[in-house]
Structure formats: structure tokens, C-alpha cells
Write a structure and sequence with these properties.
Length: 252
Amino acid sequence: MGLTTSGKLRVRPSRIHLPFHHQSQAHFPTRKQRKKDWDEDITKQNLHMWLRWLEDLKSLRNFKVPRCYRHGGLGCAISLQLHYFCDASQVAYAVATYLRTGDNEGNAGFSFFCGKARLAPLKQLTVPRLELCAAVLATRADQTVKRKIGVPLEESVFWTDSMIVVKYIANLEKRFHTFIANRISAIHEVTEKAQWRHVRSRWNPADDATRGIHVEDMLKECRWIGGPSFLSRPEEYWPREPEIRHELENDP
């Protein structure tokens, strides 16, 4: 991971197939969730879905991702910034990361950098709590990338489509139960609340990983790889922060 002699950043994309892999998790519950033994036969319906998924898997050989993260149309790069998009569902929580490059003429471009995800625990949690887990996962991904990338970076930006998480992170006084408090503390240790922003679900590419998408959609211009188009625009055109009109009264 690092700069080539031509000044172009090249890294190996990580977890690029997450949305497709998690699509299988949405359809095939674990053995414990089904409350069946490991050697019991699966239903015909599940067998059909499994064979279909295996057949679709072959199509991923046609899936391609550019390995150069600096766009050819940009001038001299003067800034590099990582953007993390978080999301969660009852199946999984995930983070999609993009590297935004700004040049000396005020232009910007961005590319998919890496993805990270975890399956939701067997003990069911509320979606707001899983969204908070996704936020923690994003901060850990940020620490890992910063250690390995080997180039100067501007302050990272974190995006979530959960207003509850935004309120959690913005709160510096209210006391929460242990589960919430520990994760808020982990986020505050490595980020400032000003680094966190709200994004609508339709612009959140991490949504693809938590809900899963079909292989046909992976082979198209999917938002998981393409990312949100507003990142190529100046910051004043990014989604604006919604007004927080009331404080959290309890732990969701």
C-alpha cells in the first residue's frame, strides 16, 4: 500500500464483494437461528436458493474495480481524505470507505477504498444499537488504514444515516447504559463530534452491504463501488446537517 513512482496511489481493494456475500446471509439463517442440528437436511426451498447463489457466484469473475485511486483527469493532488459510510440491519453492520482526492485547481475525485462488515450477533439487538456498532467499526477501520496507507491524510469524515447515532455522538453530558456508553466512549476516544455527519439512506453505499444485492446489480454501476456522487463536489454541496430538535430520552 502506498505511492508508486508515478505518484499514483495503488492498493489492493478489500472486501469488494461484501454486498453479494451478505445477500446470502439474508436468505440463509444460521443453524442456531433455525434451531436445527448440523446434520439435518435443509429444505428444498433453501437448497434451491443456495444452488442459485452458487451459480451467481461464478458471474463475479466479470467484476472489476480500478486499482488506481487517483483519477486521471485531476491536476496535482494537494489533499487526500478518507470518508467512511456506516449502516446496519438485523443481518449485518458495515462500513464502506472512499478515498477523496483534491487537486490544485479545486477539482476532486474519489474511489472505493475498502469495505468492512460484521454479521449481527445471534442475540438480537435493536437497529439503533447495531448502527452504533457500525460507527465503532468505522473508527477502527480508520485507525487501521491510517497506520498502513503511508501518505499524509486530512481529517477523516464519518457518515451515518442514523440520526440516533448522530445524537449519541453529539451528546457529551447524558449518561447511558453500559452497552451504549462503552461504544460512545470508544468513538470519542479517536474522533471529534465535528467529524460525524448525517447522510440519507439513499446516498449511503454501506446500505448495500447490510441488506445484500444480487450479482446482476454488483456488475452494474452499483453505489457500493461508485459511492455517493456528492463527494466529487465542493464541501458546501455535501448533505447539510439536519437540526437536532430534542435530546435522547432513553436508550433505544
